[in-house]
Write a structure and sequence with these properties.
Number of domains: 2
Distance between the termini: 48 Å
Largest sheet: 6 strands, parallel
Structural class: alpha/beta
Low-confidence stretches: 1-26, 36-41
Number of strands: 8
Strand order of the largest sheet: 1-8-5-4-2-3
Strand content: 5-15%
CATH class of the largest domain: Mainly Alpha
Mean pLDDT: 89
Amino acid sequence: MRAAGAVTDSRFCHERLLDDTTQAAFFRMSEEFAMTAAESDSAVLPSYDLTMPPLVRFGTGRVTEVGEVAATLGRRIWLVTGGSSYVASGAKSGLESSLTAAGLPAVVVAQSAGEPTVSQLATALAGLPPERADVVVVAVGGGATIDFAKALAALATNVSVASTAEAEAAVIDRLEGVGRSLPITQPPLPVIAVPTTAGTGAEATRNAVISCPDRRFKKSLRSPLMVPRAAIIDPALTRSCSRATTAAAGLDCLTQLIEAFICRKRWSLPQALVLEAFPRAFAALPKVLAVPDDEPARAALAHAAFISGVALGNSGLGLAHGVAAALGVECGTPHGLACALLLPVALRINQHESQAELARLDATLGGPPVPADEAASRFVGRLEALCLQAGVPTRLSEVGLRADRLDWLAENSGGNSMRGNPVQLSTPALRDLLATVL
Protein backbone atom coordinates (compact mmCIF):
# COMPACT_ATOMS: atom_id res chain seq x y z
CA MET A 1 0.00 0.00 0.00
CA ARG A 2 1.28 3.45 -0.81
CA ALA A 3 2.25 5.85 1.94
CA ALA A 4 -0.41 8.40 2.84
CA GLY A 5 1.91 11.22 1.85
CA ALA A 6 2.00 9.97 -1.74
CA VAL A 7 -1.68 10.68 -2.31
CA THR A 8 -2.48 13.77 -4.35
CA ASP A 9 -5.71 15.67 -4.96
CA SER A 10 -5.83 14.41 -8.54
CA ARG A 11 -5.50 10.75 -7.59
CA PHE A 12 -8.12 9.61 -5.11
CA CYS A 13 -6.58 6.42 -3.73
CA HIS A 14 -7.49 4.01 -0.99
CA GLU A 15 -5.58 5.80 1.72
CA ARG A 16 -7.74 8.94 1.35
CA LEU A 17 -10.71 6.92 2.62
CA LEU A 18 -9.29 6.78 6.14
CA ASP A 19 -9.43 10.38 7.29
CA ASP A 20 -8.70 11.32 10.89
CA THR A 21 -12.33 11.22 12.01
CA THR A 22 -12.92 7.82 10.47
CA GLN A 23 -9.71 6.42 11.92
CA ALA A 24 -10.75 7.56 15.38
CA ALA A 25 -14.18 5.96 14.97
CA PHE A 26 -12.62 2.76 13.67
CA PHE A 27 -10.25 2.57 16.62
CA ARG A 28 -13.19 3.04 19.00
CA MET A 29 -14.99 0.17 17.26
CA SER A 30 -11.87 -1.98 17.53
CA GLU A 31 -11.71 -1.25 21.25
CA GLU A 32 -15.35 -2.29 21.58
CA PHE A 33 -14.57 -5.57 19.87
CA ALA A 34 -11.61 -6.11 22.18
CA MET A 35 -13.81 -5.50 25.23
CA THR A 36 -16.45 -7.87 23.88
CA ALA A 37 -13.84 -10.56 23.29
CA ALA A 38 -12.43 -10.08 26.77
CA GLU A 39 -15.86 -10.59 28.27
CA SER A 40 -16.53 -13.70 26.19
CA ASP A 41 -17.10 -16.99 27.99
CA SER A 42 -14.56 -18.63 25.69
CA ALA A 43 -10.90 -18.03 26.50
CA VAL A 44 -9.70 -19.60 23.26
CA LEU A 45 -9.96 -17.83 19.93
CA PRO A 46 -11.87 -20.19 17.60
CA SER A 47 -10.21 -21.38 14.43
CA TYR A 48 -11.22 -19.74 11.17
CA ASP A 49 -10.50 -19.56 7.45
CA LEU A 50 -10.16 -16.21 5.69
CA THR A 51 -10.25 -15.92 1.91
CA MET A 52 -9.84 -12.78 -0.17
CA PRO A 53 -7.87 -11.69 -3.23
CA PRO A 54 -4.13 -11.71 -2.45
CA LEU A 55 -3.74 -8.39 -4.29
CA VAL A 56 -6.10 -5.41 -4.19
CA ARG A 57 -5.41 -2.10 -5.90
CA PHE A 58 -7.93 0.62 -5.19
CA GLY A 59 -8.14 4.18 -6.45
CA THR A 60 -9.18 6.44 -9.28
CA GLY A 61 -7.20 5.72 -12.44
CA ARG A 62 -5.86 2.36 -11.34
CA VAL A 63 -7.46 0.53 -14.26
CA THR A 64 -4.28 1.53 -16.11
CA GLU A 65 -2.33 -0.86 -13.85
CA VAL A 66 -4.08 -4.03 -15.07
CA GLY A 67 -1.27 -4.81 -17.53
CA GLU A 68 1.40 -4.51 -14.83
CA VAL A 69 -0.49 -6.90 -12.56
CA ALA A 70 -1.40 -9.34 -15.34
CA ALA A 71 2.24 -9.61 -16.42
CA THR A 72 3.05 -11.19 -13.05
CA LEU A 73 0.46 -13.92 -13.64
CA GLY A 74 0.77 -14.89 -17.30
CA ARG A 75 1.61 -13.93 -20.85
CA ARG A 76 -1.74 -13.87 -22.66
CA ILE A 77 -5.08 -12.29 -21.77
CA TRP A 78 -8.60 -13.61 -22.19
CA LEU A 79 -11.05 -10.74 -21.72
CA VAL A 80 -14.57 -11.24 -20.36
CA THR A 81 -16.53 -8.00 -20.64
CA GLY A 82 -19.97 -6.60 -20.04
CA GLY A 83 -22.10 -5.29 -22.88
CA SER A 84 -21.91 -1.53 -23.27
CA SER A 85 -20.21 -0.98 -19.90
CA TYR A 86 -16.75 -1.91 -21.19
CA VAL A 87 -16.70 1.15 -23.42
CA ALA A 88 -19.10 3.43 -21.52
CA SER A 89 -17.24 3.08 -18.22
CA GLY A 90 -14.00 4.28 -19.77
CA ALA A 91 -12.26 1.01 -18.94
CA LYS A 92 -11.49 -0.04 -22.50
CA SER A 93 -8.87 2.50 -23.53
CA GLY A 94 -6.92 2.55 -20.27
CA LEU A 95 -6.98 -1.21 -19.81
CA GLU A 96 -6.01 -2.09 -23.36
CA SER A 97 -3.21 0.50 -23.36
CA SER A 98 -1.84 -1.04 -20.18
CA LEU A 99 -1.93 -4.53 -21.68
CA THR A 100 -0.14 -3.31 -24.81
CA ALA A 101 2.51 -1.58 -22.70
CA ALA A 102 3.06 -4.83 -20.81
CA GLY A 103 3.37 -6.79 -24.07
CA LEU A 104 0.31 -8.92 -23.38
CA PRO A 105 -1.87 -9.92 -26.36
CA ALA A 106 -5.58 -9.96 -25.53
CA VAL A 107 -8.67 -11.54 -27.04
CA VAL A 108 -12.30 -11.21 -25.95
CA VAL A 109 -13.54 -14.74 -25.20
CA ALA A 110 -16.95 -13.88 -23.74
CA GLN A 111 -19.35 -10.99 -23.29
CA SER A 112 -21.99 -11.17 -20.60
CA ALA A 113 -25.60 -10.27 -21.25
CA GLY A 114 -27.26 -9.92 -17.87
CA GLU A 115 -26.79 -12.53 -15.17
CA PRO A 116 -24.87 -15.52 -16.58
CA THR A 117 -26.83 -18.61 -17.57
CA VAL A 118 -25.83 -22.22 -18.00
CA SER A 119 -26.33 -21.87 -21.75
CA GLN A 120 -24.18 -18.73 -22.04
CA LEU A 121 -21.41 -20.26 -19.96
CA ALA A 122 -21.51 -23.53 -21.92
CA THR A 123 -21.30 -21.70 -25.24
CA ALA A 124 -18.30 -19.71 -24.05
CA LEU A 125 -16.62 -22.78 -22.57
CA ALA A 126 -17.02 -24.82 -25.76
CA GLY A 127 -15.61 -21.96 -27.83
CA LEU A 128 -12.46 -21.27 -25.80
CA PRO A 129 -9.12 -21.35 -27.61
CA PRO A 130 -7.40 -24.70 -27.08
CA GLU A 131 -4.09 -23.22 -25.88
CA ARG A 132 -4.46 -22.28 -22.23
CA ALA A 133 -0.91 -22.08 -20.93
CA ASP A 134 0.04 -18.74 -19.37
CA VAL A 135 -3.51 -17.36 -19.79
CA VAL A 136 -4.88 -14.70 -17.43
CA VAL A 137 -8.62 -14.00 -17.44
CA VAL A 138 -9.43 -10.31 -17.03
CA ALA A 139 -13.06 -9.57 -16.14
CA VAL A 140 -14.31 -6.02 -16.73
CA GLY A 141 -17.92 -5.33 -15.79
CA GLY A 142 -20.51 -5.70 -13.07
CA GLY A 143 -20.95 -8.63 -10.74
CA ALA A 144 -22.55 -10.79 -13.43
CA THR A 145 -19.55 -10.31 -15.72
CA ILE A 146 -17.08 -11.10 -12.96
CA ASP A 147 -19.05 -14.21 -11.97
CA PHE A 148 -19.08 -15.28 -15.63
CA ALA A 149 -15.29 -14.91 -15.76
CA LYS A 150 -14.67 -16.76 -12.49
CA ALA A 151 -16.83 -19.67 -13.63
CA LEU A 152 -15.20 -19.78 -17.06
CA ALA A 153 -11.69 -19.68 -15.57
CA ALA A 154 -12.53 -22.53 -13.19
CA LEU A 155 -14.18 -24.75 -15.78
CA ALA A 156 -11.41 -24.14 -18.33
CA THR A 157 -8.97 -26.11 -16.18
CA ASN A 158 -11.40 -28.65 -14.71
CA VAL A 159 -13.36 -30.00 -17.69
CA SER A 160 -12.66 -31.06 -21.25
CA VAL A 161 -15.58 -30.67 -23.64
CA ALA A 162 -16.03 -31.10 -27.36
CA SER A 163 -19.47 -29.54 -27.77
CA THR A 164 -21.90 -27.11 -26.19
CA ALA A 165 -24.07 -30.01 -25.02
CA GLU A 166 -21.11 -31.56 -23.18
CA ALA A 167 -20.28 -28.16 -21.73
CA GLU A 168 -23.83 -27.70 -20.39
CA ALA A 169 -23.67 -31.06 -18.65
CA ALA A 170 -20.26 -30.19 -17.20
CA VAL A 171 -21.57 -26.86 -15.86
CA ILE A 172 -24.68 -28.35 -14.26
CA ASP A 173 -22.69 -31.17 -12.67
CA ARG A 174 -20.61 -28.62 -10.76
CA LEU A 175 -23.36 -26.36 -9.46
CA GLU A 176 -24.53 -26.64 -5.87
CA GLY A 177 -27.74 -28.62 -5.39
CA VAL A 178 -28.10 -29.81 -8.99
CA GLY A 179 -26.38 -32.42 -11.13
CA ARG A 180 -23.66 -34.41 -9.41
CA SER A 181 -22.20 -31.53 -7.36
CA LEU A 182 -18.70 -32.30 -8.62
CA PRO A 183 -15.97 -30.19 -6.99
CA ILE A 184 -13.47 -27.82 -8.56
CA THR A 185 -10.23 -29.70 -7.96
CA GLN A 186 -7.71 -28.03 -10.29
CA PRO A 187 -6.62 -24.40 -9.82
CA PRO A 188 -8.56 -22.11 -12.17
CA LEU A 189 -6.87 -19.81 -14.61
CA PRO A 190 -5.86 -16.67 -12.68
CA VAL A 191 -8.58 -14.01 -12.70
CA ILE A 192 -8.16 -10.25 -12.42
CA ALA A 193 -11.48 -8.61 -11.55
CA VAL A 194 -12.15 -5.01 -12.62
CA PRO A 195 -15.63 -4.00 -11.39
CA THR A 196 -17.59 -1.26 -13.17
CA THR A 197 -20.41 -1.21 -10.59
CA ALA A 198 -20.28 -0.75 -6.82
CA GLY A 199 -22.48 -3.43 -5.33
CA THR A 200 -21.97 -7.17 -5.59
CA GLY A 201 -18.44 -7.51 -4.27
CA ALA A 202 -17.91 -10.34 -6.78
CA GLU A 203 -14.30 -9.23 -7.06
CA ALA A 204 -13.72 -10.68 -3.57
CA THR A 205 -15.88 -13.81 -3.46
CA ARG A 206 -15.28 -17.51 -4.04
CA ASN A 207 -18.44 -18.30 -6.01
CA ALA A 208 -20.21 -17.53 -9.26
CA VAL A 209 -24.00 -17.39 -9.47
CA ILE A 210 -25.35 -19.14 -12.57
CA SER A 211 -29.01 -19.35 -13.58
CA CYS A 212 -30.86 -21.78 -15.81
CA PRO A 213 -34.17 -20.42 -17.15
CA ASP A 214 -35.08 -23.77 -18.73
CA ARG A 215 -34.80 -25.67 -15.45
CA ARG A 216 -35.80 -22.66 -13.33
CA PHE A 217 -32.94 -22.44 -10.89
CA LYS A 218 -30.17 -20.08 -9.86
CA LYS A 219 -27.24 -21.82 -8.17
CA SER A 220 -23.60 -21.23 -7.33
CA LEU A 221 -20.41 -22.70 -8.66
CA ARG A 222 -18.28 -22.48 -5.54
CA SER A 223 -14.70 -23.15 -4.49
CA PRO A 224 -12.05 -21.36 -2.41
CA LEU A 225 -9.89 -21.69 -5.53
CA MET A 226 -12.21 -19.30 -7.39
CA VAL A 227 -11.28 -16.15 -5.46
CA PRO A 228 -9.74 -13.73 -8.01
CA ARG A 229 -5.97 -13.43 -7.88
CA ALA A 230 -6.28 -9.65 -8.04
CA ALA A 231 -8.96 -6.98 -7.79
CA ILE A 232 -8.35 -3.66 -9.51
CA ILE A 233 -11.02 -1.32 -8.17
CA ASP A 234 -11.26 2.03 -9.93
CA PRO A 235 -14.25 4.01 -8.59
CA ALA A 236 -14.26 6.23 -11.69
CA LEU A 237 -15.48 3.25 -13.75
CA THR A 238 -18.86 3.41 -11.99
CA ARG A 239 -19.66 6.91 -13.29
CA SER A 240 -21.50 5.61 -16.36
CA CYS A 241 -23.99 3.62 -14.28
CA SER A 242 -27.58 4.83 -14.48
CA ARG A 243 -29.32 6.08 -11.36
CA ALA A 244 -31.34 2.84 -11.17
CA THR A 245 -28.21 0.69 -11.44
CA THR A 246 -26.38 2.82 -8.88
CA ALA A 247 -29.28 2.55 -6.44
CA ALA A 248 -29.76 -1.20 -6.85
CA ALA A 249 -26.03 -1.93 -6.64
CA GLY A 250 -25.57 0.33 -3.61
CA LEU A 251 -28.46 -1.26 -1.74
CA ASP A 252 -27.18 -4.73 -2.65
CA CYS A 253 -23.88 -3.70 -1.08
CA LEU A 254 -25.59 -2.44 2.09
CA THR A 255 -27.69 -5.61 2.27
CA GLN A 256 -24.57 -7.74 2.07
CA LEU A 257 -22.82 -5.74 4.77
CA ILE A 258 -25.83 -6.03 7.08
CA GLU A 259 -26.55 -9.70 6.45
CA ALA A 260 -22.89 -10.65 6.89
CA PHE A 261 -22.86 -8.69 10.17
CA ILE A 262 -25.93 -10.40 11.66
CA CYS A 263 -25.93 -13.87 10.06
CA ARG A 264 -25.69 -17.08 12.05
CA LYS A 265 -22.06 -17.58 10.99
CA ARG A 266 -20.97 -14.03 11.86
CA TRP A 267 -17.57 -13.56 13.46
CA SER A 268 -15.41 -10.71 14.60
CA LEU A 269 -13.04 -10.04 11.69
CA PRO A 270 -15.66 -9.62 8.94
CA GLN A 271 -17.78 -7.67 11.42
CA ALA A 272 -14.90 -5.27 12.07
CA LEU A 273 -14.56 -4.66 8.33
CA VAL A 274 -18.30 -4.04 8.04
CA LEU A 275 -18.23 -1.49 10.85
CA GLU A 276 -15.54 0.47 9.00
CA ALA A 277 -17.30 0.43 5.61
CA PHE A 278 -21.02 0.51 6.40
CA PRO A 279 -21.53 4.07 7.73
CA ARG A 280 -19.49 5.53 4.89
CA ALA A 281 -21.55 3.64 2.28
CA PHE A 282 -24.83 4.52 3.96
CA ALA A 283 -23.96 8.21 3.76
CA ALA A 284 -22.51 7.95 0.24
CA LEU A 285 -25.42 6.35 -1.58
CA PRO A 286 -27.85 9.31 -1.26
CA LYS A 287 -25.03 11.65 -2.26
CA VAL A 288 -24.29 9.74 -5.46
CA LEU A 289 -28.00 9.50 -6.31
CA ALA A 290 -28.26 13.28 -5.96
CA VAL A 291 -24.88 14.21 -7.46
CA PRO A 292 -23.60 11.44 -9.79
CA ASP A 293 -20.16 13.07 -10.10
CA ASP A 294 -19.49 13.02 -6.34
CA GLU A 295 -16.08 11.33 -6.50
CA PRO A 296 -15.53 10.73 -2.75
CA ALA A 297 -19.01 9.17 -2.45
CA ARG A 298 -18.38 6.88 -5.43
CA ALA A 299 -15.08 5.83 -3.88
CA ALA A 300 -16.81 5.06 -0.59
CA LEU A 301 -19.36 2.85 -2.34
CA ALA A 302 -16.72 1.01 -4.38
CA HIS A 303 -14.70 0.40 -1.22
CA ALA A 304 -17.77 -0.82 0.67
CA ALA A 305 -18.76 -3.14 -2.19
CA PHE A 306 -15.37 -4.84 -1.99
CA ILE A 307 -15.64 -5.13 1.80
CA SER A 308 -19.14 -6.59 1.44
CA GLY A 309 -17.71 -9.31 -0.79
CA VAL A 310 -15.01 -10.13 1.75
CA ALA A 311 -17.57 -10.13 4.57
CA LEU A 312 -20.18 -12.34 2.90
CA GLY A 313 -17.53 -14.70 1.56
CA ASN A 314 -16.17 -15.28 5.05
CA SER A 315 -19.41 -15.19 7.05
CA GLY A 316 -22.62 -15.61 5.09
CA LEU A 317 -25.86 -13.90 4.15
CA GLY A 318 -29.54 -14.18 5.03
CA LEU A 319 -33.16 -13.98 3.97
CA ALA A 320 -32.91 -11.08 1.52
CA HIS A 321 -30.37 -12.88 -0.63
CA GLY A 322 -32.04 -16.26 -0.19
CA VAL A 323 -35.35 -15.01 -1.57
CA ALA A 324 -33.75 -12.69 -4.13
CA ALA A 325 -32.28 -15.61 -6.06
CA ALA A 326 -35.67 -17.31 -6.42
CA LEU A 327 -37.37 -14.00 -7.23
CA GLY A 328 -34.88 -13.51 -10.03
CA VAL A 329 -35.77 -16.90 -11.48
CA GLU A 330 -39.51 -16.36 -11.19
CA CYS A 331 -39.80 -12.72 -12.29
CA GLY A 332 -36.48 -11.93 -13.91
CA THR A 333 -35.88 -9.31 -11.23
CA PRO A 334 -32.29 -8.01 -11.31
CA HIS A 335 -30.40 -9.24 -8.28
CA GLY A 336 -29.63 -5.84 -6.77
CA LEU A 337 -33.22 -4.67 -7.10
CA ALA A 338 -34.53 -7.89 -5.55
CA CYS A 339 -32.19 -7.54 -2.57
CA ALA A 340 -33.19 -3.91 -2.08
CA LEU A 341 -36.89 -4.78 -2.13
CA LEU A 342 -36.40 -7.61 0.38
CA LEU A 343 -34.01 -5.82 2.74
CA PRO A 344 -36.73 -4.16 4.89
CA VAL A 345 -38.58 -7.50 5.07
CA ALA A 346 -35.44 -9.27 6.25
CA LEU A 347 -34.63 -6.57 8.80
CA ARG A 348 -38.10 -6.67 10.32
CA ILE A 349 -38.21 -10.45 10.74
CA ASN A 350 -34.70 -10.51 12.25
CA GLN A 351 -35.03 -7.36 14.34
CA HIS A 352 -35.61 -9.05 17.71
CA GLU A 353 -33.13 -11.90 17.23
CA SER A 354 -30.42 -9.54 15.93
CA GLN A 355 -31.20 -6.62 18.21
CA ALA A 356 -27.68 -6.22 19.59
CA GLU A 357 -26.02 -6.36 16.15
CA LEU A 358 -28.50 -3.95 14.57
CA ALA A 359 -28.02 -1.56 17.48
CA ARG A 360 -24.26 -1.61 16.88
CA LEU A 361 -24.77 -0.78 13.22
CA ASP A 362 -27.17 1.98 14.18
CA ALA A 363 -24.56 3.49 16.49
CA THR A 364 -22.20 3.97 13.51
CA LEU A 365 -24.78 6.25 11.88
CA GLY A 366 -24.91 8.74 14.73
CA GLY A 367 -27.79 10.02 16.81
CA PRO A 368 -28.51 10.14 20.53
CA PRO A 369 -27.79 6.93 22.48
CA VAL A 370 -30.90 4.84 23.11
CA PRO A 371 -31.58 1.34 24.49
CA ALA A 372 -30.70 -1.53 22.15
CA ASP A 373 -34.29 -2.33 21.21
CA GLU A 374 -34.94 1.29 20.26
CA ALA A 375 -31.64 1.51 18.37
CA ALA A 376 -32.47 -1.63 16.37
CA SER A 377 -35.89 -0.20 15.51
CA ARG A 378 -34.33 3.12 14.52
CA PHE A 379 -31.88 1.29 12.28
CA VAL A 380 -34.67 -0.57 10.47
CA GLY A 381 -36.46 2.74 9.95
CA ARG A 382 -33.33 4.34 8.54
CA LEU A 383 -32.90 1.57 5.97
CA GLU A 384 -36.57 1.69 4.99
CA ALA A 385 -36.28 5.44 4.44
CA LEU A 386 -33.16 4.99 2.30
CA CYS A 387 -34.90 2.36 0.16
CA LEU A 388 -37.82 4.73 -0.41
CA GLN A 389 -35.43 7.57 -1.26
CA ALA A 390 -33.75 5.31 -3.84
CA GLY A 391 -37.10 4.51 -5.45
CA VAL A 392 -37.11 0.81 -4.61
CA PRO A 393 -40.46 -1.01 -5.02
CA THR A 394 -42.07 -1.97 -1.74
CA ARG A 395 -44.33 -4.78 -3.00
CA LEU A 396 -43.47 -8.06 -4.72
CA SER A 397 -46.34 -7.53 -7.11
CA GLU A 398 -44.54 -4.45 -8.43
CA VAL A 399 -41.85 -6.70 -9.91
CA GLY A 400 -44.39 -9.11 -11.37
CA LEU A 401 -44.96 -11.74 -8.68
CA ARG A 402 -48.46 -13.23 -8.72
CA ALA A 403 -50.22 -14.43 -5.58
CA ASP A 404 -50.46 -17.97 -6.94
CA ARG A 405 -46.64 -18.11 -7.15
CA LEU A 406 -45.99 -17.35 -3.47
CA ASP A 407 -45.80 -21.05 -2.59
CA TRP A 408 -43.24 -21.66 -5.33
CA LEU A 409 -41.18 -18.65 -4.23
CA ALA A 410 -41.08 -19.82 -0.62
CA GLU A 411 -40.27 -23.41 -1.57
CA ASN A 412 -37.37 -22.31 -3.77
CA SER A 413 -35.80 -19.79 -1.40
CA GLY A 414 -33.50 -22.22 0.39
CA GLY A 415 -29.75 -22.64 0.12
CA ASN A 416 -26.77 -21.24 1.99
CA SER A 417 -28.19 -17.75 2.36
CA MET A 418 -31.40 -18.86 4.07
CA ARG A 419 -29.46 -21.22 6.33
CA GLY A 420 -27.46 -18.21 7.49
CA ASN A 421 -30.51 -16.13 8.40
CA PRO A 422 -30.67 -15.37 12.16
CA VAL A 423 -34.33 -16.44 12.33
CA GLN A 424 -34.87 -19.86 10.80
CA LEU A 425 -38.21 -19.98 8.97
CA SER A 426 -40.20 -22.96 7.79
CA THR A 427 -41.46 -22.83 4.22
CA PRO A 428 -45.04 -22.01 5.33
CA ALA A 429 -43.75 -19.26 7.66
CA LEU A 430 -41.67 -17.77 4.87
CA ARG A 431 -44.65 -17.91 2.53
CA ASP A 432 -46.79 -16.03 5.07
CA LEU A 433 -44.07 -13.43 5.54
CA LEU A 434 -43.75 -12.81 1.81
CA ALA A 435 -47.51 -12.54 1.52
CA THR A 436 -47.37 -9.45 3.73
CA VAL A 437 -45.43 -7.60 1.03
CA LEU A 438 -47.23 -8.98 -2.03
